[in-house]
Specification:
Structural class: alpha/beta
Distance between the termini: 11 Å
CATH architecture: Roll
Number of helices: 5
Shape: elongated
CATH superfamily: CBS-domain
Strand content: 15-25%
CATH topology: CBS-domain
Strand order of the largest sheet: 1-2-3
Number of domains: 1
Helix content: 25-40%
CATH class: Alpha Beta
Length: about 130
C-alpha cells in the first residue's frame, strides 16, 4: 500500500538553499541553472527563515524596474510563512500537504533544523517506483 511508503526515503537531502543575505540575482542564477522553481532560505544554524520562489524573484525584478532599483537580497522578497513537514510522514500525507497548500515543495524539519525537502517530483517518482513493483 502507498500509505506504507515512508516519505523520508524520497526526501531530497541536500537541495539548493539560500540565506536571507544572498543577492537576488545569485538566487535567480542558481534556480535557473539547477532548473528549480524555488528554494528554502535558512540561517547560519540551519533553521528555516523563509522560502523564495520564481514568482517572488519576478516580483522583485518588476518592483525594482518600476522604482529604478533592480536588485536586493533574498530576505527582502522571500515568504516568511513556511509550512514544513516531519521526516516521518507517509507518502500520502506528504502528497496531501502539497496539494492542500498548493505547493511544489515542502521543507523537512527535524529538531528545529532543516534536513531536506519533499517535492511533487520526488513523491511522483516514489509512486511510480511502487507501481512498477
Amino acid at each position: 500500500m502507498l500509505k506504507d511508503i515512508k516519505a523520508e526515503h524520497h526526501m531530497t537531502k541536500n537541495p539548493v538553499t539560500f540565506t536571507a543575505e544572498t543577492d537576488i540575482f545569485d538566487a535567480i542564477n542558481a534556480m535557473t541553472e539547477n532548473k528549480i522553481s524555488g528554494a528554502t532560505v535558512i540561517d547560519d544554524e540551519n533553521r528555516i527563515v523563509g522560502v523564495i520562489s520564481e514568482v517572488d524573484c519576478l516580483k522583485a525584478i518588476l518592483n525594482g524596474s518600476y522604482y529604478g532599483q533592480v536588485g536586493g537580497k533574498v530576505g527582502q522578497f522571500m515568504s516568511e510563512e513556511v509550512e514544513t513537514a516531519d521526516k516521518n510522514l507517509d507518502i500520502l500525507k506528504v502528497a496531501e500537504m502539497l496539494i492542500k497548500g498548493n505547493r511544489r515543495r515542502l521543507p523537512v524539519v527535524e529538531n528545529g533544523k532543516f534536513v531536506g525537502q519533499y517535492s511533487i517530483r520526488s513523491i511522483l517518482t516514489a509512486v511510480n517506483e511502487f507501481n512498477r513493483g
